[in-house]
Design brief:
CATH architecture of the largest domain: 3-Layer(aba) Sandwich
Strand content: 5-15%
Order of helices and strands: HHEHEHEHEHEEEEEHHHHEEHHHEH
CATH class of the largest domain: Alpha Beta
CATH topology of the largest domain: Aspartate Aminotransferase, domain 2
Number of strands: 12
Distance between the termini: 15 Å
Structural class: alpha/beta
Helix content: 25-40%
Number of helices: 14
């Protein structure tokens, strides 16, 4: 059986050639391809400074540290996100405070965020869910009024724009991810786009054990001395990975165009399906990056997610890999032990059983998409549960 994944990387010959050339070079890490990738990322992010790191989670961790967030602080986090968004807050000893999503949408609700601000609140992390820009106008007003540091989670949103401004250019910190399911990949990897040279220098120091001078700088200055001035981490991204990133990034316009075409085609093919709500679209001034295509399955046959799960299993039986983005973070066992419970974010809890992510990736063919839609519509039209497949 041919499997259609919900997402996957696409590696082409020029990507392989770029990596091989680096393998044959003098530097496998902390070399020139790192700075080349960082400079290349300034374009699509609109940011004057970009620091690449080993993962999107590492990017969140370092952004929080560089933003001065620590023990005793609270950080507003949307509950409808991957766990890493909140986990990074815990890494620095702060407390994530979970914010509900806008009614009928997947994005952080600024009004709920406002209600949950306390004297200990220091930062807010809006997530550009699925590539759909968060309501940054309201979030920035809120942040300004309460003097909160804004750290945008743009892991889904490389190439997205809010009101004509690239995601990456709007806040002091914006993080990105280069995991294989994202728009471009470095295998594993991430980046922090920042607005200030001082923040950039601090991030580079933190990703390299807290040492004041890296090996390249010491070689240029012909000196061996260095000093570890703070507790840092080994969050470096290698030249091998950056070589892949540089090559992949050149294709970003093509990738964004292909993803939008597939998302628009899903809309046309699924329009009018009873009991189905298609993904929300951003306002006309903003641009969706289409990392994910998340639908909602509603109606009396989906009590508690029963029909959603049945469709999930049916599509898997036919070799079509769907997914669920996301189980609200506050409902995970770990955060339950920290005091969070059902009822804390009612809108996210309401729509969670309805969520299903259909396959979407660069390289997906229309024939594959037709197969997904065919099996999905058949499963949607079956209101009687089928026997379980072995």
């Amino acid at each position: 059986m041919t499997v259609i994944p919900y997402a996957r990387q696409r590696i082409e010959e020029e990507d392989i050639s770029s990596v091989v050339a680096t393998l044959r070079s003098d530097f496998l890490t902390t070399g020139p391809r790192v700075e080349e990738f960082e400079n290349a990322l300034k374009g699509p992010t609109g940011s004057p400074f970009v620091v690449v790191v080993s993962s999107g989670t590492a990017a969140l961790h370092l952004a929080l540290l560089a933003g001065g967030i620590g023990p005793g602080d609270e950080v507003l986090v949307p509950t409808l996100s991957f766990a890493a968004t909140a986990n990074a807050v815990c890494y620095v000893g702060a407390r994530p405070v979970f914010v509900d999503c806008l009614k009928g949408e997947f994005l952080m609700d600024p009004e709920d965020a406002d209600r949950k601000i306390t004297p200990r609140t220091r930062a807010i992390i809006p997530v550009h869910f699925a590539g759909h820009p968060a309501p940054m106008g309201d979030i920035n007003v809120l942040a300004s009024r309460h003097r909160l540091t804004v750290i945008e989670d743009g892991a889904h949103a490389l190439g997205a724009q809010w009101h004509g401004h690239p995601v990456g250019s709007l806040s002091p910190f914006t993080i990105f991810s280069f995991h294989p399911v994202k728009h471009i990949t470095t295998g594993e990897g991430g980046a922090v786009a920042v607005s200030d040279v001082t923040l950039m220098k601090r991030l580079k120091q933190l990703r390299h054990h807290g040492i004041d001078l890296d090996s390249i700088t010491r070689n240029v200055q012909k000196r061996w001395e260095y000093d570890m001035v703070e507790l840092g981490y080994n969050y470096r991204l290698s030249d091998i990975q950056c070589a892949l990133g540089v090559s992949q990034l050149k294709k970003l316009p093509k990738i964004l165009k292909a993803r939008k075409r597939l998302a628009d085609r899903y809309d046309r093919l699924l329009q009018g399906c009873h009991g189905l709500i298609l993904p929300p679209r951003p306002d006309p001034l903003s641009t969706h990056a289409w990392h994910l295509y998340v639908v909602r399955i509603v109606g009396p046959f989906n009590n508690g997610g029963e029909k959603r799960d049945r469709i999930f299993n049916e599509l898997r039986f036919h070799g079509i890999q769907t997914n669920v983005h996301y189980k609200p973070i506050h409902l995970h066992s770990y955060y339950g032990r920290l005091g969070w419970k059902m009822g804390d974010c009612p809108e996210a809890e309401r729509i969670f059983p309805q969520l299903l992510t259909l396959p979407l990736y660069w390289g997906m063919t229309e024939q594959q998409q037709d197969e997904v839609v065919d099996h999905f519509l058949k499963a949607m039209n079956e209101d009687v549960p089928r026997e379980k497949h072995s």
